């Protein structure tokens, strides 16, 4: 439950709790069997009651004095032409200024001038709007309107620009300019209007046809679920979800699925950024921030636009506003952030209305019923698999401690509508206990059901380079994607776009075959013992997928064994019968046979007859089209050709098969994924 690379107070609190508990208290807690009993016990214990009360006033408030100082530093940097330094200080001034004050209005107005100079007119326009909303002085409004007109001209929105310049002239009567400066402003503004007239004459020759780029077309193709599923709104009709007792829910192919098919495209029901990304990425859309839009009351979060800010403030952030600083300082990992976000997003009234349904957990949801399975349905998040029965007593104790901590955060942020300076929350109300149970449920559930949300850091935007790295932005809960079981040889590749996730088949999948994903433990990058240990620790199961049962080699082991980056005939240990495609083992005792006889159909197959050269050429072609040219359609066709020949003669694993599948993943990230250009990477 603790962040591996971020320190905080919670690990120390946890150690203190363990030291505080008597043997009798431990036995008492271990004998509890329900979430309600555990929450009630922990909430009433003297240690959390005393310690968590100290967190009530822990939040980072606005700081108008520092804001004014930062704005002045920004002004000085702007005057000497250091726009980067000016931008940094203006943004800090914006974040620290009190809402609806002249200081905030001036900070926005100053930053707008900087953004305009940096060639970012759209962001400058947003700041100009915010300056007006924050109460910018009427006597200086002519400056804002002139700047607005200039930004609109840069965007070739001439009609709006004309109106802005005319408003600037009209507002000049409110200014305190002397006659000389007033006359100069009028002269400059009228010249701008004349330029607009000439630009309008040129643009009136006819509208230019707007055509989509190849990349945009490919992106649309990948992010389009061609045949939507009638039951699962985020998935394709080519999948079905089934259920078996003891096995749980799993996904199968409803029909033959060609490689490259988009299986699922889903936005998360809950998501959270890693705290170290709070200043660079938007809380709402997870997009990279160019000009930070702050929360109106706290300093801890950032948004990329007014729209994203308003969405957040009208829903989840009003209950997170005072809690984020405490959560970050706690040193807890991403799961508590996700739990708070889910509760804050849906709110007490909606969750309370589901009280009767939430009394029991349905681990068949989405499989046995015919009702529509929607991403934004709170019940679908609640019914995700939860391995409480596999947790040891100390794990139950820790997670209950965390759940009560989160409950206190909701109380202190008026989630229940009863927070006052005198309220001490001595006893749990019915609704508070109910929410405490849910917080504990999701604290136990999310570790097994969360997907990473990431971006690709690359030095090249037009082709894949091997120096590229995947870096985590945060995590999300994707109720449809969470239904897929694990295999170390997954059926599809996935990547993130914004906070969403798209999954694309990386091979041809036969009707009735299980469609699996990978929980981060790929056979080609990690050995058997490492994969199984990680899966057992985090997901509470011992993997029995084919790569684990057959102990497949990693890609490095395959390359080492073959002495290069291609498969040779002497490396083949299994091939397919050329008649019935039955798998044939080459090793017989201690001998390696070159002619294999099928025990099913009796056909003899020569190892040397396997067209390795053809498979290699098709594999290299698919890699070239997908990774070097980013040609999705032709690349997927090349992968299909390669895998069709491969499936006829060979059995996984193989260097060539790996090449086609990893090329799909790389192209997916380059074409539709979140990316950040990293200059200077060799």
Number of strands: 17
Low-confidence stretches at least 5 residues in length (pLDDT < 50)? none
Structural class: alpha+beta
Query: Radius of gyration over alpha carbons?
Result: 30 Å
Distance between the termini: 36 Å
Counting DSSP H or I runs of 4 or more residues, the number of helices is 25
* Major sheet characteristics: 4 strands, mixed
Average pLDDT score: 92
Strands of the widest sheet, in order across it, are 4-8-7-17
Please indicate the percent range of residues in DSSP E strands (runs of 2 or more).
Answer: 5-15%
Explained architecture:
With 682 residues, this protein is an alpha+beta fold. A four-stranded mixed beta sheet has the order 4-8-7-17. A three-stranded antiparallel beta sheet has the order 3-10-9, with helices on one face. Strands 1-2 form a two-stranded antiparallel sheet. The longest helix is centred in the N-terminal third of the chain and has 25 residues, at 179-203.
Fold topology:
Layout: H1 10-20, H2 23-30, H3 35-44, H4 46-53, H5 64-79, H6 83-96, H7 102-117, H8 121-133, H9 141-154, H10 158-171, H11 179-203, H12 214-222, E1 239-244, E2 248-253, E3 262-266, E4 270-273, E5 293-294, E6 302-303, H13 306-313, H14 317-320, H15 324-330, H16 334-353, H17 378-382, H18 393-412, H19 430-445, E7 450-458, E8 469-477, E9 492-497, E10 500-505, H20 528-539, H21 546-549, H22 555-562, E11 574-576, E12 583-585, E13 587-588, E14 591-592, E15 595-597, E16 604-606, H23 612-628, H24 632-649, H25 655-672, E17 675-677
Parallel strand pairs: 7-17
Antiparallel strand pairs: 1-2, 3-10, 4-8, 5-6, 7-8, 9-10, 11-12, 13-14, 15-16
